[in-house]
Amino acid sequence: MSIPAPIATGSFLYLILGAALLGLVFASRLTGRLSKDNAEIANVVVIISTIATWLFWLCAWMHQWHPLIKPIYEE
User: Fold this and answer.
1) Rounded CA gap, 67 and 43, in Å?
2) Is residue 17 part of a domain?
3) Residue 70 domain-assigned?
4) pTM
5) Into which family does the record put it (predicted)?
6) Listed residue (26, 9, 14, 7) closest to 51, CA to CA
7) CB 7 within 8 A of CB 58
8) Is 13 a member of any domain?
């Protein structure tokens, strides 16, 4: 069994999104817009929110992949 292409692609995109957001936090820390404590909190928030949104997307995709209930069309 291999990983379906949409799951691999979507997971990779969420990884890129998380890395980009962590890069923004790091850049904000370097420029002085964020203090060290606020940057640490922002890192935790970015990581948790990226994982949570990825998990929500994955669950939604998996539920639509092989539905257990088929629609019944009445004529």
Assistant:
1) 36
2) yes
3) no
4) 0.83
5) Belongs to the V-ATPase e1/e2 subunit family.
6) 14
7) yes
8) yes
Write out the chain's pLDDT in tens, 75 residues.
788 999 999 999 999 999 999 999 999 999 999 999 999 999 999 999 999 999 999 999 998 888 777 778 887
Q: What are phi and psi of 70, to 5 degrees?
A: -95, 145
Would you give the distance in Å from CA 20 to the centre of its chain? 12
Q: What is the dihedral of CA 7, 9, 12, 18, to 10 degrees?
A: -90
Domain that holds residue 32: 5-65
Q: Which of 32, 52, 50, 29 is nearest to 40 (CA)?
A: 29
Q: Which residues contact 21 (CB under 8 A, 6 or more apart)?
A: 46, 50
Q: Is residue 71 part of a domain?
A: no
